[in-house]
């Protein structure tokens, strides 16, 4: 593989949600990075968030503990890889903390907030290590789930 | 898993080499991060390095193309996760560039350069996602290979 080869694509291992949101990037970024805000929109209701640890810097812990309607908790330990305030947020479950490998690297999340004259082009991508994991994520309801969460995000961020 | 649980250990998925080197951390760090220097020590001879791309910053590409004695090239694409000049260098093959998942996350390398009054406590750790990968890496000759490379590193850095 020469250095000059075509850029690597992960398109067959990727899921994408994109939407124009009538709010500035700053409000959406706050809703993604402040635990008390994130808890209000991150899981599609009737699921919720029991607690969230968000140490928003490269290598910082990102752990959202999801709460089922029956009261069961599901931790999602991960770390941030890249943080550009109000512009970009990248995290992965490949590490449980800096830099301890997790039991199973499943996905990397890339959230882009692009300013469009007061609005935001919001793009949420999930990149997987395997096509099988991408397909499983899609069958788990990626599009409906992330879509519903994005509705909730938009409603919450509008109150800020 | 409560936030207050005991810290996660990767010890059964880790390989470690540690050595006191009679050189300051700055020289060892240079040998790790300047391509023309790294090429001179990174592979146990008679193996060599065909070329090295070292974009030494979080998310930057770290690709050392190894060269077999028969002239065959073996790329090792990865990215840096953390860089503290003359103190710490962390990289992984879980991504081929920021932040494209690789075909197979195998290891994360953590290199610590600890100043000890003009000398360096040098610690090179390889953290794997599975015990099987750790064991395979050990059988591939981790201790002998990394030991020999560290001899070469020490000899090269002494000339700086």
Structure description:
The structure is a homodimer of 160-residue chains. With 160 residues, chain A is of the alpha+beta class. The first copy, chain A, contains four helices and ten strands. Chain A has helices at 25-33, 35-38, 131-139, 142-157; strands at residues 14-21, 48-54, 62-67, 73-74, 79-84, 88-92, 95-97, 100-101, 107-116, 119-128. Chain A has a five-stranded antiparallel sheet with strand order 1-10-9-6-5. In chain A, strand 7 and strand 8 form a beta hairpin. In chain A, helix 1 crosses helix 4. Chain A starts with 13 loop residues before the first strand and ends with a helix. The interface between A and B is medium-sized, with 35 and 35 residues.
> What is the ordering of alpha helices and beta strands of chain A?
EHHEEEEEEEEEHH
How many distinct beta strands of chain A? 10
User: What do the pLDDT scores of chain A average to?
Assistant: 93
Structural class of chain A: alpha+beta
Beta-strand portion of chain A reads 35-45%
Topology:
The structure is a homodimer of 160-residue chains.
Chain A: E1 14-21, H1 25-33, H2 35-38, E2 48-54, E3 62-67, E4 73-74, E5 79-84, E6 88-92, E7 95-97, E8 100-101, E9 107-116, E10 119-128, H3 131-139, H4 142-157
Antiparallel strand pairs in A: 1-10, 2-3, 3-4, 5-6, 6-9, 7-8, 9-10
Helix pairs in contact in A: 1-4
List keywords for this structure.
homodimer, 160 residues, alpha+beta, 5-stranded antiparallel β-sheet, 24% helix, disordered N terminus
Summarize this structure briefly.
Chain A has 4 helices and 10 strands; from the N terminus they run E-H-H-E-E-E-E-E-E-E-E-E-H-H.
């Amino acid at each position: 593989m020469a250095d000059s080869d075509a850029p690597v694509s992960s398109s067959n291992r990727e899921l994408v949600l994109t939407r124009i949101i009538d709010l500035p990037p700053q409000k959406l970024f706050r809703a993604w990075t402040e635990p008390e805000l994130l808890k209000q929109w991150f899981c599609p209701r009737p699921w919720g968030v029991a607690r969230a640890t968000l140490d928003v810097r490269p290598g910082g812990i990102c752990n959202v503990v999801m709460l089922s309607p029956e009261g069961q908790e599901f931790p999602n330990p991960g770390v941030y890889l890249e943080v550009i305030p109000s512009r970009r947020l990248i995290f992965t479950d490949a590490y449980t903390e800096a830099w301890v490998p997790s039991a199973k690297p499943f996905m990397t999340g890339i959230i882009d907030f692009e300013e469009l004259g007061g609005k935001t082009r919001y793009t949420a991508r999930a990149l997987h290590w395997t096509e099988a994991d991408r397909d499983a994520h899609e069958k788990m309801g990626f599009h409906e789930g992330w879509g519903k969460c994005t509705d909730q995000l938009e409603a919450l961020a509008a109150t800020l």
